[in-house]
Automatic annotation (TrEMBL):
Annotated Ketoreductase domain residues: 4-188
Gene expressing this chain: fabG_1
Species assigned in the record: Micromonospora sediminimaris
UniProt xrefs under PANTHER family: OXIDOREDUCTASE, SHORT-CHAIN DEHYDROGENASE/REDUCTASE FAMILY (AFU_ORTHOLOGUE AFUA_5G02870), SHORT-CHAIN DEHYDROGENASE_REDUCTASE FAMILY PROTEIN
MF annotations from Gene Ontology: oxidoreductase activity
Source species, domain of life: Bacteria
This protein's name: 3-oxoacyl-ACP reductase
Length: 248
């Protein structure tokens, strides 16, 4: 069997880079996506060297909120079936204004970053998904399940409802669709200078295991859901949160 092809959005940093690395180690050929070319090429070089498989990872620069740029990914895939699609790109937009115009701008930016990126990439690649056997994984957040993030919580929760629809649509083709919902994960660009020692300690104290998550914690869950072994798991939300939220 030829090696599986995986596409990972936001694969240049943090959780996405850890996912890309674990899929390369698992034998996949991986295409990582993001807006910053220099960040992507440094990650491609690092993962290729660490895994001893420089030919197995490459990058395409794309702002996935833009339909034309999402379409570029289809060209890069070049007609090969996509075995694994990991919609990981996302992020938090701080609300800078309490005017209605400012609130509208913040919600639009948050929905664009966390929902539209996943929708456009998935729709662009939908015809290319491996039938049977394709895997679609959406990276949500604990904020979808417990709130606390305003527009960010709402945007991530939107992914859950959409994943259930997508799982129903793609199930007859033996394609699975699942959501991974991380809790607090340190060592990424997500908090972008917003994290304080108190905020860190509070989040660690909210876990049952007494530590922050690391990108590899999430990557290992994605690796399982992306594997051929996970064909009977679809339409599910998997919390990877150290026990901060239980059972949902
Ligand atoms: N860290 C946490 O505690 C945590 C917890 C729960 C959920 N999450 C979720 O996990 C995912 C990964 O986050 P992370 O923690 O690894 O943070 P991160 O390092 O900031 O990763 C986000 C990635 O998304 C990419 N991205 C953002 N907007 C994009 C766009 N419009 N088009 C293409 N790529 C885009 C970024 O690359 P460019 O800037 O180069 O485009 C970056 O590589 C996100 O969806 C985040 O919401 C994180």
């Amino acid at each position: 069997m030829s090696e599986r092809l995986a596409v990972v959005s936001g694969g240049g940093t943090g959780i996405g880079a850890a996912v890309a690395r674990s899929l390369v180690l698992d034998g996949c050929s991986v295409l990582v996506l993001g807006r910053r070319a220099e960040v992507l090429s440094a990650t491609v070089e690092r993962i290729g060297a660490e895994c001893g498989r420089p030919e197995a990872i490459r990058a395409v620069t794309a702002d996935l909120t833009d339909p034309d740029q999402a379409a570029k990914v289809v060209e890069a895939v070049g007609g090969r079936p996509v075995d694994v699609l990991v919609n990981n790109a996302g992020g938090y937009h701080s609300a800078e204004s309490d005017t209605l115009a400012g609130i509208a701008a913040n919600w639009r930016a948050t929905l664009d970053t966390n929902v539209l990126t996943a929708v456009l990439l998935t729709e662009a690649l939908r015809p290319a998904l491996r039938r049977p056997g394709g895997r679609v994984i959406l990276i949500s957040s604990i904020a979808a399940q417990r709130g606390g993030g305003d527009a960010y919580s709402a945007a991530k929760a939107a992914l859950h409802g959409w994943a259930y629809s997508l799982a129903a649509q793609l199930g007859p083709d033996q394609i699975t669709v699942n959501v991974v919902s991380p809790g607090y994960v340190a060592e990424t660009e997500f908090f972008d200078g917003r994290m304080t020692p108190e905020g860190h300690a509070q989040r660690v104290a909210a876990t049952l295991v007494g530590r922050a998550g690391v990108p590899d914690d999430v990557a290992e869950s994605v690796r399982y859901l992306a594997s051929p072994a996970a064909g009977y798991v679809t339409g599910q939300v998997l919390g990877v949160n150290g026990g901060s939220v239980l059972g949902r």
